[in-house]
Write a structure and sequence with these properties.
By secondary structure, this protein is an all-alpha fold. The protein has three helices and no strands.
């Protein structure tokens, strides 16, 4: 290639965006994917709570309450991180 024609991926991106991709577009995509990843982590925290409840209904142990507290703290912290990322990004 002589370097004068754009790469096929650039042509595809330009057809979707209407203009050449910029660094701001790249940052917006990164921010979007970070928020998606944090949302999935938040769902993971909900799954942990569900699993702890299932375990406690099956087997009751001395540390069941501690595990429930740890699960809720984990979910709360992941919610705080998601909210901070949403505000900052």
């Amino acid at each position: 290639m002589n370097g004068s024609s754009p790469a096929p991926i650039d042509t595809l991106i330009q057809s979707f965006l209407g203009s050449p991709p910029t660094f701001d577009t790249f940052l917006a995509l990164i921010k979007f994917f970070v928020l998606i990843a944090l949302t999935l982590y938040l769902v993971f925290g909900l799954v942990i709570i569900r699993q702890i409840n299932q375990m406690n209904s099956t087997i009751r142990t001395n540390i069941s309450f501690i595990l429930q507290i740890a699960g809720w703290v984990h979910l709360g912290l992941s919610l705080v991180v998601w909210f901070i990322a949403f505000v900052v990004l």
